[in-house]
Amino acid sequence: MRAVLARAPAPPDADQLRELRIVLLADAKDHGAEEHDYPLWQQRWRVLLGGSQGSDASTPLNLYGPPAVPGLDDRSGAPRLKVETAWHWPSRQQWESADAVVAFCYLPWNEARFQEVAAYLARGGGLVLVHSATWTMPGPSERVAALTGVGGFTRYRHGPVELEIATDHPLGLGLPPRLSFLDETYWPPTPAEHAARIQVLASSKESLGSTPDRGAPQPVFWLCEPDPGRVFGCVLGHYTWTFDDPYFRLLLLRGIAWSARESPYRLDALALPGARANGVINAGVWSGRRTPRAPCNPLPRPPSAPHRGRSRTAG
Ligand SMILES: [Zn+2]
């Protein structure tokens, strides 16, 4: 991982950096243990990005398992970064002042919020959508696609994910051409006609038929530029351990920095603090006191089963 980081341009001195305002948007947890843990992510990534202050001094930087070993848990955060949190939906003041809004929860779209996000992107704001935030409720939306490039998805699957990385893209600089995760994919981008507007940074082959097959590449990390705003999408993030994977972190951190119209490598150093840099989480065989349970369901589930009363919520 350090070799990957060494491929990126060194960041300028902190006093030459523009101050960035990043809003981390979360909501109430809506799945079981180690799944969709928006509050935990918000708490931990506020410290990872913004650094610890006072009562945060002992907040772990990883989401899954016991805290990382001492020496790999630098809590100083990134220089010149102001991190705020939002619950359910950012405030008007946050939409007006943020450089990037990072959303990890289902987004409660309505007419006023479509207009708020449109105005935010029109002034050059960055919007980062993580997992549930890419799955539009109650179903794929033309309005969301017009704003973000992807209006939602119709299929999902839990289990091993083999990503193919666009290593010739600036955000894929130095990364290996393939990465493995144990998480959940959504596909295909719906409605399809907007997919031509996105750049795919990483894809996974997923079946579009009724029986398993080799499938077709589907976007898992993507970029969209509804000029002058920038949108970065990240389908992974179902399980807590994915946020501790240094490669996942690097892809997401580069998306956050890019969306804020900064060097995509500005936050690279945060890929390591608290991460499980040995990669075993990827394989789902972490040998600590707890072991990631098997994917809760490797096949598409009926929409009514695990959805806690919400229609068409992905698993
Ligand atoms: Zn999920």
Describe what you observe in this structure.
The protein is an alpha/beta fold and 315 residues long. The chain has a single domain (2-283), classed as Class I glutamine amidotransferase (GATase) domain (Rossmann fold). Helix content is 19%, strand content 21%. It is built from seven helices and nine strands. The chain has a nine-stranded mixed β-sheet. β3 (100-103), α4 (111-122) and β4 (126-130) form a beta-alpha-beta unit. Zinc ion binds at residues 36, 131, 184, 238, 314-315.
Topology (SSEs and partners):
Layout: H1 2-6, E1 20-26, H2 38-50, E2 81-87, H3 92-97, E3 100-103, H4 111-122, E4 126-130, H5 142-148, E5 155-165, E6 178-187, E7 198-206, E8 216-224, E9 230-234, H6 246-259, H7 280-283
Parallel strand pairs: 1-2, 1-3, 3-4, 4-9
Antiparallel strand pairs: 5-6, 5-7, 7-8, 8-9
Bound molecules: zinc ion.
Q: If you compute it from the alpha carbons, what radius of gyration comes out, rounded to the nearest whole angstrom?
A: 18 Å
Please mark out the parts with pLDDT under 50 across 5 or more consecutive residues, or reply none: 278-312
The neighbouring-strand order within the major sheet is 2-1-3-4-9-8-7-5-6
What is the CATH class? Alpha Beta
> Which distinct ligands sit in these coordinates?
zinc ion
Give the helix proportion (percent range). 10-25%
Count of the separate structural domains: 1
Largest sheet: 9 strands, mixed
Q: Which structural category do the helix and sheet elements fall into?
A: alpha/beta
Give the SSE string. Answer: HEHEHEHEHEEEEEHH
Count all strands and give the number.
9
**Oligomerization:** single chain
